[in-house]
Sequence to fold (440 residues):
Amino acid sequence: MPSFSAVIEAARAGGEWAFEVLFRDYQPALLRYLRGQAPDIADDVASETWIAVAAGLRGFEGDADDFRAWLFTIGRHRLIDERRREKRRVLTSALTTTQLLEVVGDDNPETTVIDAVGGDLAAQRIVALLPADQADVILLRVVADLSVDQVAEVLGKKPGHVRTLQSRGLKRLAERISEKPVTP
Amino acid sequence: MANDSIFEGLDQEATALLHAARATTPASPDAGLLTAMAAAAVDGPVPISSRPRRTTMIGKLITAKALGLAGALVLTGGVAAAATGTLPDPVQTPVSNAAEHVGVHIPEGEHGAAVSAVAHDKSNDGDGNHGATVSETARQNHGHEGDATTTTTVAGDDNGGTTNSGPGNNGKGNAKGHTKAHDATDDNEDQVTTTTVANTPTTVDDDANDSARSGSSSSGSSNSGSSSGGSSSGSGNSSHSGQSGDSGHGGSGTDD
Fold:
């Protein structure tokens, strides 16, 4: 198993195998994060993100954690750009049939698809239940597995602000998720 | 996962939701994307999505400016055409009428034709009243009865040459209606004396060769050599003098 730095060097030289390694390691979390925010354009944004990462790889310096934060920073910016350009409304409904078929697993396709859809819907429900900034923090902390400092870097906020958003988001999530529908 | 601490204190449902969101499935890149990534890494930082976006923005700006320029040209061209009386008569007359309401004088479209018809009416030739008849027609048609700009030239011979014109805004009509006859007059010796009296045609000229027969108008107190355009600029109404540009329109009848 090559080291992270070796993979990065090979990717800088244009090695497709290196990009495949990076893709397998980071794409699932990136795609989950994007699908939680904008399921209708998530896959396109993810592809654009990877192209941008490859193009800017020569200027990247850091370890695997830094790469993760950098990847999600680019992905988030691409998502914002795409939303502005397309002026599409963020959908929080269920995935389309096409998106369901695109989620292909390795061992048990049926189970994998169900898990993926469940995970995507869970991420979308978080986004639906929380204000945008709180949902962003929660997804970056949980799905992208970034630290508070990394999330602060991705969002361009101070770590203390990120902690506040996270705390409020979790509290609100617990309150909203336990709410029972009121029947007349 | 490094962030398990954030689940502490959460109830079961919220924790389950976060765990479900976290659980990811393996992903395999397609060959096309890998190839594109490798190419992008070798070629350097080429943000493929931003480049066409900038081009599109520039294109939009250029398109908007081009449309604006074209619109401005059409508008100014239309105004200029109306001011010079070169619009088609069905358009010119309504424009002229509309402009009159705001105090802007624009030539009417059919004035010249109406005056021309009277001027060419052979039945009036030789009776000595031809000029007066034409003058009256001109006065009634141009809609400026109050203007002290009626200019009439009466040729007293049997040619019945009469030049009449209303205010300057009928220059176009005169020119249009009498170009042919005016063309026949190449004599610079035409003597056209113009006296301008409010609504009173009083000018008399005995020149038998007067191009006034053609109905072309004359400038106040000038020799007929300057009347080529069929324009009018009667004294006492400086507001119409600007219509002298109409002479260019009616200039097909050259005196020189």
In short: The radius of gyration of chain B is 37 Å. The interface with chain A takes residues 1-3, 6, 9-11, 13-14, 17-18, 20-29, 33-50, 53 of chain B (CB under 8 Å).
